[in-house]
Amino acid sequence: MIYKRGKFYWYKFMRDGRLVRESTRQGNDKVAHNMESAHRTSLAKDEVGIREKKAVPTLAQFLTDCILPWAEATLAANTPKNAKWYRREIRALKEYKPLANVPLEGINGELTSRFAAQRIQQGRRIATVNSSLRVLRRVLNLAVEWGVIATARKLKVLSGERRRERVASAEEEAKCLAVASEPLALIAPVLADTGMRPEECFRMRWEYVTWLNGRKGALLVTHGTTA
Questions:
Q1: Are the C-beta atoms of 200 and 224 separated by less than 8 Å?
Q2: How many CB atoms lie within 10 A of CB 160?
Q3: CA 187/CA 108 separation, integer angstroms
Q4: For the chain, which residues make up each domain, given as ranges?
Q5: 109 touches 156 (CB < 8 A)
Q6: What is the H or E stretch that residue 225 is in?
Q7: Tens digit of each residue's pLDDT, the chain (227 residues)
Q8: Residue 58: beta bridge partners?
Q9: Fewer CB within 10 Å of terminal CB in the chain, N or C?
Q10: Strand order in the sheet with 2-5
Q11: How many Å apart are CA 147 and CA 66, to the nearest integer?
Q12: Rounded to whole angstroms, how far apart are CA atoms 210 and 197?
């Protein structure tokens, strides 16, 4: 059978009591079916037997060859800040050679803890270190999604991170709007009432707004960091 994981199709079947499962790295279901059939035929004819394990790239190789091109292709145009974030954190990850030179499947909590400890010793804040760890966690999840590795270990961020979020009260909002100039006076209530980010709000078009009974409605956010 074939099934889709992320943007690629995978196939799996049983052969002599052994589960065979591989990514086709294809987004076309017909091609995936053909690849599954070819693998079944090869095994039946004893032409390949049990396949050799594919070489797993190191973290540095995967970041350079796969993640950076992916970030530039998918993030640079619509969310340039996210693309810049990936570039910055990828540089930090590649600078720590004990982590960068390890195959993806060998990355574990002990190794990332040493990476975090070195960053703290360099004077980095916990929030800065956690930013790198979050990118690393995302990178490993993408490696699983793309069929490069089978599983990714769970990585924990450091505790004690200071957060800068603060919720303004209704009174503070009213005082701000009373002295705000345009376009802030027009945009700020929309941001406060919908929770949209500025970039999401600036991309709004009238066709993305649906009114119900002239009082309530819905907004369609077509660009953002989450689905």
A1: yes
A2: 8
A3: 45
A4: 2-44, 59-145, 182-219
A5: yes
A6: none
A7: 888 888 888 888 877 777 788 888 777 787 778 778 777 777 776 555 545 556 889 999 999 999 999 888 888 888 888 889 999 999 999 999 999 999 999 999 999 999 999 999 999 999 999 999 999 999 999 998 888 888 888 888 898 887 777 788 889 888 998 999 988 889 998 888 888 888 888 888 999 988 887 778 888 888 776 66
A8: 103
A9: C
A10: 2-5, 8-15, 18-23
A11: 12
A12: 19
Residue 208: which of 222, 195, 197 has the closest Cα? Answer: 222
CB 113 within 8 A of CB 107: no
Tokens of 161: 């991170």
Token pair 């406060």: residue: 192
- What distance in Å separates the CA atoms of residue 87 and residue 84, rounded to the nearest whole number? 5
Residue type, 145: E
End-to-end CA distance of the chain: 28
Residue with tokens 């960053």: 119
State the residue for tokens 């705000």.
180
Length of the chain counted residue by residue: 227
Entry pTM: 0.55
Written as one letter, the residue type at 6 is G
